[in-house]
Structure formats: structure tokens, C-alpha cells
Amino acid sequence: MTSKPNLYSGLQITVFGASRSGIAIAWLLYDLGAKITLTDTRERDLLSSEINQLDGAPIEFQLGGHGISCIDNADLIVVSPGVPLDIPILCEAKRRQISIIGELEVSAGQCHAPIVAITGTKGKSTTTLLTAAILEKSNLFTNVIVAGNIGVPLARKSALLTDKDLAVVEVSSFQLESTYFFRPEVSVVLNLSRDHLDRHKTMDAYINAKRKIYANQTESDWIVLNAADDRVKRLSDDSDANTAYFTDNLKDTESGLNCFCADNGCKVGVGLRRYGDQINIYNYHNKQENLICNVTEIPLAGSHNIRNVLAATVIGTIYGVPHTDMRQALLEFDKKHIALEHAFEKVRALNGVDYINDSKATNVIATYAALESIKNTRYTSENAKQIFLIIGGFDKGNIYEPLIDLVQESVKCLILLGEHTHNIHNTLSEYAPIYQTGTMEDAVEFAYTHAVKGDIVLLSPANASFDMYSDYKERGESFRNAVNSLKPKIDN
Question: At 64, which CATH number?
């Protein structure tokens, strides 16, 4: 195994953000021989206990604010994903012509293992885990590790990997926007919809950040795209990588995946085929179609998870995983992984009403997927408005018009919760009754009081949680606790 060039030894580097990834990248850079200053706007007692891992290392801390001295002697700045690039201190650093790169740029540059990088507005975590499960089943690699935005920073793993291993990395727009030479062996774009415009400002800027996932790929690499999303499919126009598609549009593949792949100029594809009332997943490779499984065999609820399975199956196909191994990996998939908590998770059924925790739905496309999944599954009956939708939170520049049809068809009541709900009210109040509430307990109690057998109470906020909670997990726990405190209704 050839060693990676060490570009950081002897440099004075300031790491912005003492989050999990900031701590991990500080350690990695220290091990590479850099002199580290770690800065964060928070005081130490508000930071994760993980910062204690750095005690004893010759690292300078500047906590409680980013003083100008933290960049005075910096040769390089490395930012954690949660740190916006336009804060005043970083604008000053740019004026001084100090280079600013992201944690992902450093970590990937030191990683000997090939990288599969997965991004998109919705479904990244699930697809990352499904992909890892499929590739692990193949035994093609010594180790398959999961890292990135999913919880374990790549910086913590990269130095331990060899070229016999594989890293499956969930990457966000925040991570990608500060990369310059990042080059995964396989890049994956699941979908693109409005998100994080509070940070990126425009949709074009958001998409341009996502484009960095494949910007340095060559014709020896692969890009996996969602052919059913026109905005995503068009990304192939400026990519040099081999293109592989997945689609959940039955019309795309009704004449066979071989025709679909030929029409789209790709050698690998995955899609759905209908036989009577059965819908199966097929992959295509080397001019041959293979049955993977029936959609009813997928262990994850919701039609949006079918798309995640399709994407993971494409990646497995690229690496030559036998279709029988992919099927087995999917059937055995552990849906209890911590990263899947608060993602279309059924909390309980009470009095014939299902309570679903989808707190991880922090954007409109995620809430759309949740409503669409209920509409397309056993939950819903024809022409029935059955959903009490708890929605709202910290608005990141959302447009709610895409929800109109599904709200009109399926939502019995919109329960607005959070700081920024006026846009939701203005857009959707014409299509479903509105109840405004100030607490999760009140929202759940209102739904409990008014829901009848066959209804669904769905927390799918379409917004971040920062107005009321530290993160979506705390919000989801609040919903769980409120639901689990409910008592069965006693019929008189």
C-alpha cells in the first residue's frame, strides 16, 4: 500500500467547530504533525464530552468565540460541516488569503480505501446503511465501514483503512461545499429539492455544492443517479464518470431494464417490473437482468425506502455483488440501526390509530415522501383523509406548494408546531383544517382526542428543530414520550 502524501506536517492549522467531526479532524491533523488551534463559539461546558479526548494533547483551545488571534498565525483553516463559510472571521481569513478547506477534504485525502459517497436531500443515511450491508455480504473487501454525516466522522477511520477496504460515506452539502480535490470511486445523488437555503441562500448554490461530489471523477469512476428525478438525471451532462441509473418509475422499465439502459446509455441499472399485482426489483449488468426481490420483502416501511434500496442495489451491481447476495443482505437488513431512528418509525398503535415518528424529516421532500408512502401502503383507504400531520419548526427557506396535492388528498388536520409556521399556514390552510399549538404534548393530545380508528398521527415536520429542540432526535424523543404517555380510550 502506497502512503498518502502528508500535506499538513509542520503547518499551523486552525480547526473551526469543536463538534464530533471537528474533534476527529483535530486528532487526525495532530497525528500528521500539524500544530492545532481548535475554536468554537460555545464554552467548554456546552460541548460534547468527546472534547475531553483531546486533553493532554498540545492543542490550543479558543472557546466561547472566534477571536481574531485564532487566524493570526494560521497557515490553513479546516472547518467542521456545521460552520458556515460566510461568518465574519472566515471572511477575514479569505481577505488574508488563508486557504479554507473542509473536514471531508482532509479525511478523504488521507483515506487509502476506495470511497462510495452518497448525497441527496432525503434518504442518505438509509441508503448508506443498505449499501454497506450489501457490500459486506459480498466478502469482496476486508472491511466495509460506514462514516461521514451518518455519525462517525471519516477522519476517525481514514488512517486505519487499506486499499483492501471500502468506505461508504454519507456526505452533506455542508461537507461538500468546502472540498476541492475530493474524488470518490462511486458518487451517488439520490434526489435534489430545496433545503438548507438559510445557509446556501439559493437553490443554485445548494446544487453546486452537491455537484462537488463528482467534480473530480474520471471515466474510471462511477456516478449513480436517480433517473426518476429530472434535476438529478441532468447531472450526467457534466460528469466524466460512467453513469448508472436507478428508477422507481414503472413506465421507465416496462419494456425491460435492457431497453431502459440502452436508451439512457448506461451499462448498469436497477428498476421495478410489474407482473400482475406483484412488483419486483431487477438489476441489469453485462446485458443480463436479475431478479433481486419483491418490494413486499423490503424490511423498511414506506415507498421512499424502495428508492433507497434501488440506489444501494445499483452500487452493489457496480461492484459485482451476486444478485443472490444482494437479496440476502436486504432480507437480513437491521432496521433498528440508531441512524434510522426517528425516520418513519412506528411508535405504537393505540385505539386503532398508528403513531409514526418521522422527526428526521427536516425538509419538504422528506415530508412529501412520508405522505406519499402512507398513501401508497396498507395504511390508507381509497379517498380517505386519515392523517393528522404535525408539521413546523425552524424554516430553512422552504416552499410548501409541493405538499398541496397530498395534503388535499390525505390530511385530515394540519397541526402546526414551531416558531416558523406562517408560511405553512398561508400555503396549506386552504386544503386542510389547521390547529396551532405551542408544545409537542399539546399537538399529540389534540390528535389523540380527534383521531378515530384507521387514522394516522404523523410527526413529519418538514423543518429543522432548532426553534424548540437541540436536534431532530430530541424532537422525536419528545413525540415518543408524548405518545407513550397516552392511555387507551374506554368505550362507554
Answer: 3.40.50.720
